């Protein structure tokens, strides 16, 4: 996996985590607002409910996209290793050697 691919994967993961936090906060605000009386608060409740629903949909879409990306990367990696076993072994050995050097420091 290239550095750019890793950054994209981490970026997608960060977006999903941020959406989870935002959804949790929005649901908490909705729970707190539900206890308040008044007409203006009713409009706020409806806006918060719509916001929470939109966040849920966005989070579900982001999770599905991330799962598809991970699945695709896994399949491509497996296909490459099956087609080029010696190259894959050399890459793995080289990566292990470099990581060993970095850890030994």
UniProtKB/TrEMBL annotation:
It is a single-pass membrane protein. Its main location: membrane. The chain crosses the membrane at residues 86-104. Keywords: Cell inner membrane, Cell membrane, Membrane, Transmembrane, Transmembrane helix. The keyword Transmembrane applies. It comes from the Bacteria. The keyword Plastid does not apply. InterPro entries: DUF883_C, DUF883_N, YqjD/ElaB. It is found in: Cell inner membrane. Residues 14-64, 77-105 form the DUF883 domain. Belongs to the ElaB/YgaM/YqjD family. This is DUF883 family protein.
């Amino acid at each position: 996996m290239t550095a750019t691919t890793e950054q994209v994967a981490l970026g997608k993961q960060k977006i999903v985590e941020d959406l989870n936090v935002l959804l949790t906060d929005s649901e908490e605000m909705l729970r707190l607002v539900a206890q308040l009386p008044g007409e203006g608060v009713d409009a706020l409740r409806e806006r918060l409910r719509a916001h929470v629903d939109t966040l849920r949909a966005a989070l579900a879409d982001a999770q599905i996209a991330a799962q598809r990306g991970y699945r695709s990367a896994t399949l491509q990696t497996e296909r490459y290793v099956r087609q080029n076993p010696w190259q894959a072994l050399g890459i793995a050995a080289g990566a292990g050697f470099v990581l060993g050097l970095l850890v030994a420091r």
